[in-house]
Sequence to fold (327 residues):
Amino acid sequence: MSKKNNKESKKNRLATGNATLTAVDRLRGEITNHRVTLVQSLRDMVLEPLQTAMTVLVIAIALALPGALFLAVENLERLSGNVKASTQLTVFLEFGVEEKTIETLEIQLQTLVGVSSISYISPEQALTEFQVLSGFGSTLDYLAESPLPAVFVVQPDSVKLDRAGEIADQISKLSGVDQVQIDMQWLQRLRSMLEIGEKLITALSITLGLGVLLAVANTIRMAIQSRTDEIIVIRLVGGTDGYVRRPFLYTGLIFGLSGGLVSVLLLWGSVNWLNSSIEVLASLYESRFVLHGLSIWSLLGILGGGALLGLLGSWVAVRRHLRGIEP
Fold:
C-alpha cells in the first residue's frame, strides 16, 4: 500500500509540475508575442513615414489646442491668485467727522466679523499721497484744508465677492460712514472670464477628442484593408480574434502616445518662446511674472489621454471592420 501511495504521489507531483510549466510557458509565449507585435507595429509605422507623421501631427495639434487654453487659464488664475491687497474695502467717512467718532468707528471695524485688518488714512495723508501721485506738486500747498475725506481701508479675510458685499452692508450702517467701495469688480470680471475659459476647455477637449478618435480609426481602417489577405490566412490557420486585433490596437496606442508626446513638446516650446517677450513686458511693470509650463500631472494627463484616445480609436475601427473579413 505504501509503494502504491508513493507512486501516486509522484504522479501527482509530476502532473502539477507539468501544469505549472505549461502555465509559465503560456505566459512567456504571450509576453513574447506582445513584444514581437509591438516591434512589428513600430516597424510598419516607420515604413510609412508620411502617413505616420501626418496622423501623429493631427493628434498632436488636437491635443495641443485645449492644452494651450488650459495653460492660459491656469496662468491667469495664478496671476489673480495673489489678490488679497486688491479685494479691500475703501470706507469714506463724512466730512468734518469728529475724532471721537473716528476712534469709535475704528473699534467697531476691528471687532467686525470677517475683517482681517484695517488702516486709517487721515485727510492730510490722503492729500499728501494725492499730491505725489497726481504730479501737481506744490500747487496743492495753497489749499487751506484738505478737500479729501478721511478713509479706512478694510481688508476682508475672504476674497469672495458675496462675503465682501455683506461686510460692506454692515459698515455702511455705522455712524460717520459716508460711502463704502468694493475694490474687486475687476476680479469678478476676471473670474467670469476664467469660468468661460474652463468651459471652453471642456468643449474643445471633447470636440477635438472625437477628432482624434476619427483620425486614428480612419488610419487603422486603411491598415486593415491593406492587410485583408493576411488576416484571412491567419484565421484559416486558427488565429483568434484577439491575435488578429492585437497589432492594430498597438498601432493605435503608439499613434496616440506619439501625438501626446509631440503636443507636449509643442506646448513646451511655445511657453519658452513667449516667456522671452513676457519677461520684458513684466519688467516694465516691475513684476517677475513668467508663464508656467505643464505640471507633471498635466503632462501625464496629455500623454495618457492621447494613448487612451488612440487605443479607443483603433478598437472602434477593428471592431467594425474585422467583422466583414471572413475566410
In short: The mean pLDDT is 78. The chain has two domains: 30-81+189-321, 84-183.
